[in-house]
Every structure is written in structure tokens, then in C-alpha cells.
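> tool_call: predict_assembly(chains=two)
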Amino acid sequence: MSLEVGQRVRVAAREHPGHHRTPGYLKGRVGTVERCHGSFTNPETRAYGDSGLPEKALYLVRFDNGVPVYADIFEHWLEAE
Amino acid sequence: MDRAVHDTGGRPTTEPIDRTEHELEDWEVLTDALAAALASAGLMNVDEMRRGIESMPRAEYERASYYERWLFSIETILAEKGVLAPGELEARL
């Protein structure tokens, strides 16, 4: 999956019992892709001793509900709106 | 939706944020160095350490300071990997 800068995206509102870096307060929220940081090993598998491969794209997403909030979110947590 | 113990962002609270600075104690500096040494030795990566912190029972997590959480996790991960034998730490304290 590849997302474009300026694209509207929704953060998946799913539960994930293991380690993950998607903050609960952003789940289900819609934001705009600001930038792609590149690809990185996946912390969700690396946290359990795995290599974290394949790498996942990490995006800077802007959320604006009056006050802008920026967060780094991995591609597999983002759905195109 | 269930949130893990560390996932506190955006939760309503009436408690003021403690912004006071404090000097690090020796054990805190050593804990930081220990984590860095374990990482460069390939014994623990940062994602494992975060996962170990997130596995803390809620009451302990809430009570623990920043580096106490690191120590809890280092012990958890090293015990899991068999680097520390059960009871090894207690025996030395």
C-alpha cells in the first residue's frame, strides 16, 4: 500500500492485544498524510524477538479537531478514506 | 476499546501534570546504560523493552517511576530469554 501526501486516511479502530504503537485516542480518527518517513522494521513483531521484517511504511499524519495533532502511524493501521 | 496500561493519551484527568525537574540518581543512570549495553549486545531491543513495560500489572505501572519501569522490563525480558535464571537476582540482593 502506498499513500500520497495530502490523502485523507482513517486510523483502524481495531483492538490489538499485543505491543503496537498506534495510540488509542487516534483509533477511528480521520487525518491527512503529511509525509512518508520511509520504511522501518515492524515493532509489533520485533517486540517478540522477531526480525520485524518485512519493513512497513511509516507516515506522519495530521489530525485536526481544533488543535492540530501530528502522529507517526504505520501503513497497516491506515485506511484510505 | 480496551487500552493497555501505558496507552493513556487523551484520557480525561483532573490531576495536574507534574513538570518538576529532578536530578537523576546513580541507579537511574546505570539503568539507562544497562539498557544500551543490552541493546548493543543484541540481548534486548527497544520494542521488546516497551512490550515488557506494557506487561506490568496496572497498579505497579501506575506506582513505578520511569526507570523503575525500565528495570521491571529488563528483568522480564532477560528472564524470558533465560539470560537470568529464576531467582538469580533475588539471590544476589
